[in-house]
Known about the structure:
Elements: H1 4-13, E1 19-26, E2 31-37, H2 43-50
Antiparallel strand pairs: 1-2
Amino acid sequence: xxxxxxxxxxxxxxxxxxxxxxxxxxxxxxxxxxxxxxxxxxxxxxxxxxxxxxxxxxxxxx
Length: 62
């Protein structure tokens, strides 16, 4: 779906985090994104990502 990665990046960058690396894999039905950022992300970011209509599951690992 066009624009999903841009929306994810906007949510993360809005808190001033730098995206160090991303790995994206997609099939016709689902996409999987792993992102490495330069700082700890807040619950606000997790909730923002989870609220996207395209989001199936959101996990933040430290």
